[in-house]
Amino acid sequence: SATQTEGVLKVGVQNLATDTPSILQWLVDHGHAYNHVVSERPDLETVFLSLTGRSLRDS
Predict the structure, then answer these.
(1) Dist. CA 39–CA 10, nearest whole Å
(2) What are the helix (H) ranges across 3-59?
(3) Phi first, then psi: what are they for 55, rounded to 5°?
(4) Looking at CB atoms within 10 Å, which of 13, 23, 29, 42 has the fewest?
(5) DSSP, res 4
(6) What tens digit of pLDDT does each residue of 16-44 get?
(7) Range of the domain at 6
(8) Bridge partners for 9 per DSSP
(9) Closest by alpha carbon to 11, among 54, 40, 31, 43?
(10) What is the pLDDT at residue 28?
(11) How many domains does the chain have?
């Protein structure tokens, strides 16, 4: 999945080590510049929402 807001592209990947190089190459191939890359692990709320489609508070 991917979202873009205020010049920031966020891309969700299954495997950071194998997926990141191809994403960065795609950006370069399509004329998109990037300044830096940051990785974040999802928090419990994000994981729960992706698995159930509801917030922890909605449970």
Answers:
(1) 10
(2) 16-29, 44-52
(3) -75, 155
(4) 29
(5) E
(6) 999 999 999 999 999 999 999 999 988 99
(7) 2-58
(8) 4
(9) 40
(10) 96
(11) 1
Residues 6+ apart with CB under 8 A from 24: 34, 37
Q: Which amino acid is at 18?
A: T
46 pLDDT higher than 90: no
The residues pairing with 10 across neighbouring beta strands, listed in sequence order, are 3
Question: Is the backbone of residue 34 left (phi > 0), alpha (psi -120 to 50) or beta?
Answer: beta
Rounded CA-CA distance 53/25 in Å is 32
Joined together, the tokens standing for residue 40 give 């974040």
- Distance (Å) of CA 39 to CA 9, 46, 58, 59: 12, 15, 28, 29
